[in-house]
Amino acid sequence: LKENDHSAWLEKFRELEKEEIKEVITEELNPTTDVMTMGEVIKVLNELTNGDAIVTTDVGQHQMVACRYANFNSSKSSVTSGGLGTMGFGLPAAIGAWYGAPEKTVVAIIGDGGFQMTLQELGTIMQFGAKVKILILNNEFLGMVRQWQQLFHDRRYSFVNITSPDFVAVAKGYYIDGQKISERKDLKTALETMLNHDGAYLLEVMVGKENNVFPMVAQGTSVSEIRLK
């Protein structure tokens, strides 16, 4: 049999990777604006956990970013509902993960929209002492839907703006410590506080309202028409 040569095909992917790093990844992980991105939050989290934490996600833009940029050193360390789109999954999944591996650090990465769907599970955390770390990436939107409305419907936003309660105050009502930050200079210290806290902890990080997640394949298009911006 003649051995196939895939070098040209592989080289094409290398070119695409370089383009994606230039157009998407560099700015997401090392932003040049004053507004924090979800990607840079995950980047700092990686630096502090060294890939040893169990990470659960909810559903939305934060899910895409977390699954893309979070580092894992072992299997069974990433818990997500994938394409099922189960908003509210992240917090109860984190509780289950902690019970399955109480010796591990468990971080639930959740958006401001999904968190309100199952925040009553803070009561479970309080009652049973689950040492879950809750990281809310708050962009004040249902970000996944907003992104589509921005890119394909001329920013005619419909039912995607979110007014959230004081999440830190809600957590304190369940005797769970927490804090809220909105400036980059506070990010690393706040994450360290969350990870080192002996018990459950809620950290709310305000991120850019209209930061989008790329690459994406729009409805009715093919992979060859993938968007980077």
Concise overview:
With 229 residues, the protein is α/β, with parallel strands linked by helices. It contains nine helices and six strands, in the order ααβαβαβααβααβαβ.
Summarize the SSE layout with pairings.
Elements: H1 7-29, H2 38-49, E1 54-57, H3 61-69, E2 78-79, H4 90-100, E3 106-111, H5 112-118, H6 122-128, E4 132-138, H7 143-152, H8 167-173, E5 177-181, H9 187-196, E6 201-206
Parallel strand pairs: 1-2, 1-3, 3-4, 4-6, 5-6
Helix pairs in contact: 2-3, 2-9
Walk me through what this model shows.
The chain contains nine helices and six strands. With 229 residues, the chain is of the alpha/beta class. The protein has one domain (7-225): Rossmann fold (3-Layer(aba) Sandwich). A six-stranded parallel sheet has the order 2-1-3-4-6-5, with helices on both faces. Helix 3 (61-69) links the parallel strand 1 (54-57) and strand 2. Helix 2 (38-49) packs parallel to helix 3 and helix 2 (38-49) packs across helix 9 (187-196). The longest helix is centred in the first third of the chain and has 23 residues, at 7-29. The termini are far apart.
Strand/helix succession: HHEHEHEHHEHHEHE
CATH superfamily: Thiamin diphosphate (ThDP)-binding fold, Pyr/PP domains
Mean pLDDT equals 96
CATH second-level architecture:
3-Layer(aba) Sandwich
Q: How would you characterize the largest beta sheet? A: 6 strands, parallel
Strand order of the largest sheet: 2-1-3-4-6-5
Rg on CA atoms, Å: 19 Å
Query: What distance separates the N and C termini?
Result: 43 Å
By CATH, the topology is: Rossmann fold
Number of separate helices? 9
Please estimate the helix content: 40-55%
